[in-house]
Amino acid sequence: NEIVPTGIGGNQTSYINAAQVIHEGGELGLTGVLKRGLEIRIAYTVSDFYYASYVSPMGNFTGHVFPSIPTNRVYGQVKYAHRSGLFASWNTYYVGSYYVNDANTARNDLYAVSGGRAGYTKRFEYVSISFLLGINNIFNRNYVAYNVINDAGGAFYYPSPPRFYTGTVTVTLYPGRMLKK
What are the tens digits of pLDDT across the range 125-141? Predict the structure, then answer.
């Protein structure tokens, strides 16, 4: 009983109930502190999603792999935070290839992208201020992370942005501390 797009195309999309979709898989994540302030994280997800029973006006897709879900995904991060408030991190995402239509005739390629962040947080009694600078897709890879599943015109793929930069300033107030005084 999964609602899936049938892909009319253009600005219109219709949906149909796929009779039975099996979702099997698992996730494993590990976090380790290598030394004071230095932390490493890794997460792995395996997914086996398929149509146990699905006949639509477009065809019989029973036994086909459910589109848009990669079989393998890996996330890794190395992060350092100094007690002075300075911090930096490096992360990489790996996403395995996956189908983008119910017929399993079109696939999105696997991709891996990396990024980094660095910043500074200063804490005061009632407030903290944090500055963060980041860079995403640091190696300027061409990849597709957004798909239109079952697009009738075959326009399944929409490119992800090239290398881009981010910056934030965050101010956090702690009113509970002010009220206790």
Answer: 889 999 999 999 999 99
